Amino acid sequence: MLPHLIRLAAITPITAGLAGAVTGTGFLSEAAGPATSSHLRYLSGLLLGLGLTAL
Asked: Which of 5, 8, 10, 50 is the most buried (most CB within 10 A)?
């Protein structure tokens, strides 16, 4: 049962990481410069990777 709960909990970082990596700062509804968008995409990619690793 624990592996199923871990997989269920991994959906959150996967969803948030994918949204941030694809849309950049767009999913936050804030205007930002290219450096901020790039940094956010990088961090979102890390979050996505952690979520995929938990699967």
From this structure: 10
